[in-house]
Amino acid sequence: MELRVLEYFLTLAQEGSVSAAAEALHVSQPTLSRQLMDLERELGTTLFLRGRRGITLTEDGMLLRRRAAELLSLANIAKSELAAGRDALAGEIRIGCAETRAVDVLARLMRQFRSHHPAVAFQISSDLAESVAERINRGLLDFGLVLRLDGSWGLDAVRLPTEERAVVIMRDDSPLADRDVVTLDDLAQEDLLAPLSFRKSGLLGGELPRAEGGRLNMVAQFDLPYNASRMVRAGMGCAVSLDGLVATPAGSGLTSRPLEMELDMPSYLVWKPSGMRTRACEAFLEQAREAFG
């Protein structure tokens, strides 16, 4: 399976037709069709179906699309690292991040690192902790910023000097806006939006939705707090989040109040303890250890 053919396949999946993909790749349509048929024969499966409106990926085609994107990404990273040479500290450091104020601490570390190594760039992606850990173990990320640790991940970590606080995001006209602090008892009387990770993070103190025998009327769960804030503004209910992730300036129609509960949610920088690391990643890890212990 050649990387060039995988690139052909991804371009076809993106463009939606053989003619458009051939034009984007600067190859003839017969050449592209033949390469893709050879790929299907090699894999022993049908990757796409032709129709009046173009091509449609099969289930196997969608699986290959994900894997091909990962393979090409790794190949491009390897090319970049090799092109940088052994003497130059250059290349890219890939970090998966939870939505947290701890990004401020990470950003200061990144800025300090780049002041010494300006040829190094960072690629930052937002994701849930389990997904970040999986991508690190698969070699798709170098580091992760997470709000909890799980021994099954098999990752090393340093704890960052941060402290999280829970807040409730609500509309200005919500009765809760008159409170200085919102309690879990207050939330039990409201339509509630909660993060997907609320069970593992302890963000709601062990409270459960009514559908699971709890007392919270949970109308939606989310992974990005910005999206949740739009739903709150639309009148779906109030949302629980971490402090500092959603802006509620005057005139926005939203406000926030602290949630009255103890929140034990330390943040960690994590990485795979074994395996090959680029010189840039080794230098960044050394700096993180010096900064955070």
Main sheet strand line-up: 4-3-5-12-6
What does the largest sheet look like?
5 strands, mixed
What assembly state would you assign to the polypeptide chains in this entry?
Answer: single chain
Molecular shape: globular
Query: How large is the share of residues in beta strands?
Result: 15-25%
Helix and strand content put the structural class at alpha/beta
Number of helices: 10
* Rg from Cα: 24 Å
The run of helices and strands is HHHEEHEHEHEEEHEHEHEEEH
List the helices and strands and how they pair.
Elements: H1 3-15, H2 18-25, H3 29-43, E1 48-51, E2 54-57, H4 59-84, E3 91-97, H5 102-116, E4 120-126, H6 129-137, E5 143-146, E6 156-159, E7 166-171, H7 184-187, E8 191-195, H8 198-201, E9 217-222, H9 225-233, E10 238-242, E11 254-258, E12 268-271, H10 279-292
Parallel strand pairs: 3-4, 3-5, 8-9, 8-10
Antiparallel strand pairs: 1-2, 5-12, 6-12, 7-10, 7-11
What would your notes on this structure say?
With about 290 residues, the protein is of the alpha/beta class. It is built from 10 helices and 12 strands. It has helices spanning about 5-15, 20-25, 30-45, 60-85, 100-115, 130-135, 185, 200, 225-235, 280-290, and strands at about 50, 55, 90-95, 120-125, 145, 155-160, 165-170, 190-195, 215-220, 240, 255-260, 270. It has a 5-stranded mixed sheet with strand order 4-3-5-12-6, with helices on both faces. Strand 3, helix 5 and strand 4 form a beta-alpha-beta unit. The model has no long low-confidence stretch (mean pLDDT about 90).
